[in-house]
Write a structure and sequence with these properties.
heterodimer; A: 398 residues; mainly alpha; B: 159 residues; Beta Polymerase, domain 2; globular
Chain lengths: 398, 159
């Protein structure tokens, strides 16, 4: 006998309502069990696991380099952030130095994926609150970002472009002009979104004072990223413990003190602009040099060398067939993904496969927060709050 | 095993030893990440101390997970990733549990964030958290058999 997931109702007067698993505003398969008194939410119980694919388990039987394509599929709105955190964690295990050019391109592309993520967030959130046109505009610009991803990796969404030790290939020549074009177009487009929303009375009515998250609660629930910054703490891992050369870039960390849906919106809008600033600096200051570390036991040899030198061919064969084995030990590498702190905890037993890979995604924490944020609000606000905290179910369930 | 000389003076190790003399089993530093392993019976007290001590203030629970060390015993390792937000300092706290009937105190009263994390470990590793308000499966269906992240659970599942 399987017990029901939700606790028993508070009284016979209340109604239990299932929002999801197939509800358009849950962006995937999230089930929220809401207990309602009239239109007021008394209790919210998130029920997750519908998208559980066992990525952590699968990683345990793959070589380190084979795990990279799995990571794309976790947070599929910011695949390059996932690639980055996994590569950085393995590189920390290996104590590998990454050449500056590879670091710069990594920063450039992860910031573009932040823009990609925030555009999807803004579009869908606006759609849920009833602003159809913002959704269309956001997806139009997002397509430009995806085209840039496709240009360098061959894939729009599942890029798998970063490698342990650097990048897969040198980006094609028209990559630079495309990014430049995007940077020139985007500021005016962000102004357009703001024209449509920032002082829009309906938008203000639906978001101001709704779903207020206090700083204490944010810390108690381990909330990070834009949600934490909207609750009054300008904490950003790119500033606090810079990785991948972020210390070389100038940018601001926006924060608001209100902690409501509107604060979460304004923080993300400002982050869009800051990301553009970082991409511009990365593009203009892109150093010359190799795109892969000089680590023959880890990085695949150059294709041309492989065809001319026996040694290189042997290395290539050995690496593909046997993988490489980092020393036994464990690392936890946190980065600032678009949704918050994305941590990769790797335990190595000295073999070629990770003994354990734990994916600390911010989405799970954001979903857990709903049980705290929703009670006391009207049912209609549940949609606005759920949308505003930003999660992706692929990362919640992994 | 034990606490190496150079780590004994680190403030988390030093203060924790002073407060709970029997708690620490081992302290390790690898790639400049400090890991402290405690007796499972003391894990709850140690975490409470690390969170509330005015000098340490590890006030954020970044993550809670487990590692299966099969076939070694004690088999399960519960891993707490702590963060002192003010200083940006991180600390990993661990406790090892035996393979038969692994159980440890829940820390949901310290950090509500631990709620789903402990449920996930319960679901995927079969570790019991004493005092958890709602310890039930999180990822797998309620009537699932076995704990998928255990090393003796085949990747393809049972057939």
């Amino acid at each position: 006998m399987v017990e029901p997931i939700a606790p028993p109702p508070v009284s016979a007067e209340t109604m239990t309502l299932n929002m999801g698993p197939q509800h358009p505003s849950t962006h995937g398969v999230l089930r929220l069990i809401l207990e309602l008194d009239g239109e007021t939410i008394l209790r919210a119980t998130p029920d997750i696991g519908f998208l559980h694919t066992g990525i952590e388990k699968n990683a345990e039987k793959l070589y380190y380099s084979q795990v990279i394509p799995l990571t794309d599929r976790i947070d599929y709105l910011a695949p390059l952030s996932n690639n980055l955190v996994f590569c950085l964690a393995v590189e920390k295990l290996l104590k590998l130095q990454i050449p500056p050019r590879a670091q710069w391109i990594r920063v450039l592309l992860t910031e573009l994926s932040r823009i990609n993520n925030h555009l999807v967030w803004l579009g869908t959130t606006a759609l849920e609150i009833g602003a159809m046109s913002v959704f269309l505009y956001c997806f139009r610009e997002r397509e430009e970002v995806l085209k840039i991803f496709e240009l360098c990796s061959g894939q729009r969404m599942m890029c798998s472009y970063f490698r342990i030790g650097g990048l897969a290939v040198e980006p094609p020549l028209d990559f630079y002009s495309r990014v430049d074009g995007f940077l020139k177009m985007m500021p005016a487009r962000i102004d357009d979104y703001e024209d449509l929303l920032t002082e829009n009375r309906i938008w203000l009515g639906r978001t101001k004072g709704v779903g207020v998250l206090s700083l204490d609660d944010a810390l108690a629930y381990s909330i990070t990223g834009p949600n934490l910054r909207a609750s009054g703490l300008a904490y950003d891992l790119r500033k606090e413990c810079p990785y991948s050369g972020y210390e070389n870039f100038t940018f601001d960390v926006p924060s608001r003190s209100e902690g409501d849906c509107y604060a979460r919106y304004s923080v993300r809008i400002e982050e869009l602009r800051q990301s553009l600033r970082i991409v511009r600096q990365a593009l203009d200051g892109l150093p010359e040099g190799p795109i892969q570390a000089d680590a023959p036991g880890v990085v695949l040899p150059d294709r041309d060398k492989m065809k001319a030198e026996m040694e290189a061919l042997i290395y290539h064969f050995k690496l593909v067939v046997d993988g490489f084995a980092p020393p036994a030990g464990e690392v936890y590498f946190p980065i600032e993904s678009p949704k918050g702190e994305l941590g990769c905890y790797l335990v190595s037993d000295g073999g070629p496969r990770p003994w354990r890979m734990r994916w600390r995604g911010p989405s799970l924490f954001n979903v857990q927060l709903l049980a705290k944020l929703l009670p006391g609000h009207l049912l209609a606000d549940a949609v606005a709050i759920t949308a505003s905290v930003d999660f992706v179910l692929g990362e919640v369930d992994r | 095993m034990g606490i190496p000389q150079e780590l004994a003076t680190r403030s988390p190790v030093q203060r924790l030893t002073a407060a709970l003399p029997d708690a620490i089993v081992e302290a390790v530093e690898f790639r400049s990440e400090l890991t402290v392993r405690v007796e499972p019976a003391h894990s709850r007290a140690a975490l409470e101390f690390l969170k509330n001590d005015p000098e340490l203030r590890f006030n954020v629970l970044s993550d809670l997970t487990a590692v299966d060390r099969y076939p070694l015993e004690p088999r399960f390792e519960i891993v707490y990733q702590l963060l002192a937000l003010k200083r940006g300092e991180r600390l990993r706290l661990k406790a090892r549990l035996p393979g038969d009937d692994p159980r440890i105190d829940s820390i949901t009263f310290l950090w509500p964030a631990a709620n789903m994390l402990e449920r996930e470990v319960f679901d995927l590793f079969g570790v019991h958290f004493a005092g958890h308000p709602n310890l039930r499966r999180l990822m797998m269906p309620e009537d699932w058999e076995g704990h998928p992240l255990r090393k003796d659970y085949p990747v393809e599942g049972y057939r």
